[in-house]
Amino acid sequence: MIEILTGSSLNTIQDFGRRHAMAMGVAQGGAMDRLALSHGNLLLDNPVDAAGIEIVFFPFRIRFHAETSFAVTGAACPVTLDTLKLPRDWAITAQPGQTLTIRAPEQGARCYLTVRGGLDVPSVLGARSTDLKGGFGGLAGRALQKGDRLACMPAGTLRLPAAGYGLSHPCPLPSADGTYIRVLPAAEHDVFTPESLQTFQTASWTLTPSANRMGYRLEGRDRLELTRSLSLFSHGILPGTVQVPPAGQPIIQMMDANTCGGYPKIATVIEPDLRLLSQTAIGASVHFQEITRDEAVQAIRQEAANLRVLAAEISRLRTQLVF
Fold first, then answer.
1. CA proximity to 88, closest of 44, 42, 36
2. Exposure of 271 by Cβ count < 10 A (0-12 exposed, 13-18 middle, 19+ buried)?
3. Ranges for the Carboxyltransferase domain (predicted)?
């Protein structure tokens, strides 16, 4: 059992979301940085999609009411268990009465708290993720508040060294000179002017404060323009879709995006890079690079292969640890 000591309208319970429910008009949802959530769950020998807490408002504090193995992954944040400083992407066992404090990121934008077994909240439409728009999933369909208490799913005891253990190669985060995102052409790509297509890839776009789980609005010096006017019916969109409204500034659909929209689509962010975007801080620069479908498939396969290798490495490490 863990107790939330700080509340906000932004910290929520997330797993891998409801991709299968998008045909019913339900947002996919789920962790904005799936890789970080996966890393935390692998450290705890959980299923990679076990529900954890996505933290975007800091400082975040919880108190443990039972012995609990946990991990903190994702953004590079100062983390302390009582007075013990924890390294990045680290798993350790807390004792009853101990307090975990996660402070604002030094790099990245969001981090994940996972617990052994995953969080025990009801599964709604096949997932435990919080859908704030729909008001369901997670804990009563809302953000976590001070005083909330969360139970862990039943799981066998996980033996960890007293000081814990972590990843030698934490999740990649955006670099200091900006976030570099690979994209594929989308449905209306060829209706944009050649100058706009060049601008889209060569310009430095700034992530504005109008950024949330539904979408990220970017701002650049030049407008993206069409060769002719379009009148589009609302049509299906996915997380990663880059739309361009009449103002000519791109909007990237994120995990809680609506399942349909009518703005022209210039590109689609590939899945491995959508998580990098989610770790981009407000005011940082974003750069786009168009790639081929084969290159996108290879990037997705490589990320999956890397995760399998990491799972094997963690399993071997756990057997070698001295307790």
1. 36
2. middle
3. 23-305
Residue linked to tokens 């990245």: 108
Task: Please name the residue that has the structure tokens 């006017």.
Answer: 229
Amino acid at site 221: R
DSSP letter at 103 equals: P
**Which residues neighbour 92 within 8 Å (Cβ) at sequence distance 6 or greater?**
69, 70, 71, 81, 86, 160, 163, 164, 165
Helix ranges (H only) for 177-292 are 194-202, 271-278
For residue 306, the one-letter residue type is: N
The count of other CB atoms within 10 Å of the CB of residue 52 is: 29
Asked if 7 contacts 58 with a C-beta cutoff of 8 angstroms, the reply is no
Helices (H), 96-217: 194-202
Q: Record the tokens describing residue 196, joined without a space.
A: 């706009």
Helices vs. strands in the chain: H and E counts, helices first: 4, 21
Q: Which residue has the tokens 């969360």?
A: 150
> For residues 99, 100, 102 and 103, what is the CA-based torsion angle, rounded to 10 degrees?
30
> Cβ distance 289 to 201 under 8 Å?
yes
Which residue's entry shows tokens 């955006």? 174
Give yes or no: residues 6 and 117 share one domain: yes
Residues 6+ apart with CB under 8 A from 2: 62, 63, 64, 65, 68, 115, 149, 150, 152
Please give the distance of CA 59 from its chain centroid, rounded to a whole number.
Answer: 18
Residue span of the structural domain in which 153 resides: 2-168
Residue 226's CATH number: 2.40.100.10
- Clarify whether residues 40 and 147 are in a common domain: yes
Q: pLDDT tens digits for 6-65?
A: 988 899 999 999 999 888 889 899 999 999 999 999 999 999 999 999 999 999 999 999
Task: Please report which confidence band the pLDDT of residue 180 belongs to, taking 50, 70 and 90 as the band edges.
Answer: very high
Same domain, yes or no: 23 and 64: yes
Distance, in Å, from the CA atom of 272 to the CA atom of 301, rounded to the nearest integer, reads 10
